[in-house]
């Protein structure tokens, strides 16, 4: 067979990014070669996201573009993977009959045989989703030239979600929550660190419930080995050269005191936490099925600040959820002003097919959603700037990142995950740590000089 070039276009969250890496490794092991550009590839995989309607529209327009390329390249193979593939399945094939394969979120480990089977006239829609299964043991390949070794990596520690927030497609696109075995995760982390990786982020839709739905360690039942324990095991790789550890995402309803205490006791754990609140009104939280209240959420914020006063908190917010009144929304603004988040992601509510909220009445008009989003983001920008200014004059450790322009490294990241631009470049390799004094703060980044 002549060499086949593949290209993967990834939409959506970091878990999708990691899934794309896994598919790329499997394709590489099967003899495919990664292409730097989509238009020269013989095989294009679109790893899709359906969290909001806009994300799904992007996929359809990219498929339209690829249909155009088919005229120049009749043998081009197109694969749709990820959350849209899982949810829409054969409906995609009906609208885009040229697609070679639709592969669901639990099936990515079978990408190579599935491609082959589809090419031989077999099944083109491989989207089986089961409730109970084992996530295959899979070790990353670190057989790379030194310049290609990434300095930071993601590790997916669990799949799926059992929370069924009423607005959210994830429980339908990713299935029930299943945790990977702790030994597989720690081995993966060890391979990365021994290969030169300096920063690891542990990923899951709700990492705080790691180990709650299946047993993840020998001799320990469900709920007997939890996320804090896993975090401490991975943190111990500090001895082998790991410098920074992060995790995302935490659902406030499952944030334990034990996990909060890790911020005080593990110095390798970065001083930041993404703690999505979604709304600042108990009535809205209830209709969202979030299962916490604003007062219990603020209790967590207090505890976190007590354990680590410098912790940088970020959040996600949805505005215009069905039935959200002006008073409800003012609750969200009040929460923003009380917590003074370092940053946030905010979205207009987008109705998703199959979710419970899709049937809720009292939709908020589009113009009201837009106005609320604007008000929220404007205030967040002001607060982010104030928060960033708190860093001026302080000496901080940053992890240096690859430069856009090659040569000297001109930027790094604080433990709180803010970019620091340097006036003068540093001769170092990405992943090295360096002390800087902050001299200027903008809304989205800082400036500093080395000390
Ligand atoms: N598991 C994470 C969230 C993953 S989705 C958690 O529970 O926090 C990322 C963010 O997308 C969510 O936090 C939410 O703010 C937003 N989101 C999810 N569904 C949405 C919808 N239907 N409309 C608008 N925003 C949505
Ligand atoms: Fe979606 Fe809620 Fe699960 Fe997060 S916790 S993925 S918002 S259902
Ligand atoms: Fe999107 Fe699926 Fe992630 S819907 S946010 S890619 S879990």
Mind sketching the topology for me?
Elements: E1 5-10, H1 14-29, E2 33-34, E3 43-48, H2 53-72, E4 77-81, H3 82-88, H4 90-95, E5 101-103, H5 111-119, E6 125-126, E7 152-156, E8 158-159, H6 170-173, E9 178-179, H7 182-194, E10 199-203, H8 227-235, E11 244-248, H9 257-265, E12 272-274, H10 282-288, H11 294-307, E13 312-319, H12 326-339, E14 343-348, H13 366-389, E15 395-400, E16 409-414, E17 419-426, E18 433-441, E19 445-450
Parallel strand pairs: 1-2, 1-3, 3-4, 4-5, 5-6, 7-10, 10-11, 12-13, 13-14, 17-19
Antiparallel strand pairs: 8-9, 15-16, 15-18, 16-17, 18-19
Helix pairs in contact: 12-13
Bound molecules: S-adenosyl-L-homocysteine, iron/sulfur cluster (SF4) and FE3-S4 cluster.
Concise structural overview:
The protein contains 13 helices and 19 strands. By secondary structure, the chain is of the alpha/beta class. The strands form five sheets. It has a six-stranded parallel sheet, sandwiched between helices.
Keywords:
34% helix; single chain; binds S-adenosyl-L-homocysteine; binds FE3-S4 cluster; Rossmann fold; Transcription Regulator spoIIAA; binds iron/sulfur cluster; 451 residues; alpha/beta; 5-stranded mixed β-barrel
Commentary on this structure:
With 451 residues, the chain is an alpha/beta fold. It folds into four domains: 5-126, Rossmann fold, CATH 3.40.50; 148-270, Transcription Regulator spoIIAA (2-Layer Sandwich), CATH 3.30.750.210; 272-390, Transcription Regulator spoIIAA; 395-450, Beta Barrel (OB fold (Dihydrolipoamide Acetyltransferase, E2P)), CATH 2.40.50. 34% of the residues lie in helices and 21% in strands. The protein has helices at residues 14-29, 53-72, 82-88, 90-95, 111-119, 170-173, 182-194, 227-235, 257-265, 282-288, 294-307, 326-339, 366-389, and strands spanning 5-10, 33-34, 43-48, 77-81, 101-103, 125-126, 152-156, 158-159, 178-179, 199-203, 244-248, 272-274, 312-319, 343-348, 395-400, 409-414, 419-426, 433-441, 445-450. A six-stranded parallel sheet has the order 2-1-3-4-5-6, with helices on both faces. Strands 15-16-17-19-18 form a five-stranded mixed β-barrel. Helix 5 links the parallel strand 5 (101-103) and strand 6 (125-126). Helix 12 runs parallel beside helix 13 (366-389). The longest helix is centred in the C-terminal third of the chain and has 24 residues, at 366-389. The model has no long low-confidence stretch (mean pLDDT 95). Residues 51-52, 167-168, 205-206, 249, 251, 276, 278, 316, 318, 347, 349-350, 352 line the site of S-adenosyl-L-homocysteine (SAH).
């Amino acid at each position: 067979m002549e060499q086949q070039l593949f290209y993967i276009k990834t939409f959506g969250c970091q878990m999708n990014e990691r899934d794309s890496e896994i598919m790329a490794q499997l394709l590489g092991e099967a003899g495919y070669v990664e292409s730097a550009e989509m238009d020269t590839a013989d095989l294009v995989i679109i790893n899709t996201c359906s969290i909001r309607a806009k994300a799904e529209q992007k996929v359809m327009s990219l498929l339209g573009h690829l249909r155009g390329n088919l005229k120049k390249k009749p043998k081009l193979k197109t694969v749709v993977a990820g959350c849209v593939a899982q949810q829409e399945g054969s409906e995609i094939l009906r609208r885009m009959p040229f697609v070679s394969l639709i592969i669901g979120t639990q099936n990515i480990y079978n990408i190579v045989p599935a491609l082959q089977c589809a090419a031989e006239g077999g099944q083109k829609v491989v989207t089986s989703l089961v409730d109970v299964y084992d996530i295959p043991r899979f070790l990353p390949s670190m057989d790379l030239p030194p310049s290609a070794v990434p300095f930071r990596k993601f590790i997916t520690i669990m799949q799926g979600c059992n929370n069924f927030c009423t607005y959210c497609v994830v429980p339908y696109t990713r299935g029930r929550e299943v945790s990977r075995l702790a030994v597989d995760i720690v081995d993966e982390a060890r391979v990365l660190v021994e290969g030169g990786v300096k920063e690891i982020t542990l990923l899951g839709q709700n990492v705080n419930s790691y180990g709650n739905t299946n047993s993840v360690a020998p001799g320990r039942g469900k709920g007997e080995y939890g996320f804090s324990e896993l975090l401490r095991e991975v943190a111990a790789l500090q001895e082998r050269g790991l410098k920074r550890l992060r995790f995302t995402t935490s659902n406030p309803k499952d944030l334990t005191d034990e996990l909060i205490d890790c911020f005080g006791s593990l110095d390798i754990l970065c001083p930041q936490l993404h703690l999505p609140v979604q709304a600042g009104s108990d009535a809205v939280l209830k209709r969202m099925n979030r299962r916490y209240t604003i007062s219990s959420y603020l209790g967590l914020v207090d505890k976190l600040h007590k354990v680590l006063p410098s912790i940088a908190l970020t959040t996600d917010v949805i505005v215009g959820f069905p039935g959200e009144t002006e008073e409800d929304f003012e609750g969200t603004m009040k929460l923003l002003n009380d917590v003074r988040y370092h940053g946030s992601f905010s979205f207009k509510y987008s109705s998703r097919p199959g979710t419970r909220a899709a049937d809720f009445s009292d939709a908020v008009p589009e113009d009201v959603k837009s106005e609320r989003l604007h008000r929220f983001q404007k205030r967040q920008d002001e607060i982010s700037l104030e928060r960033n200014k708190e860093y001026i004059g302080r000496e901080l450790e940053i992890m240096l990142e690859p430069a856009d322009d090659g040569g000297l490294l001109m930027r790094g990241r604080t433990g709180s995950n803010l970019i620091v631009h340097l006036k003068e470049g540093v001769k170092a390799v990405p992943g090295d740590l360096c002390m800087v004094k902050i001299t200027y703060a903008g809304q989205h980044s800082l400036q500093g000089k080395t000390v």
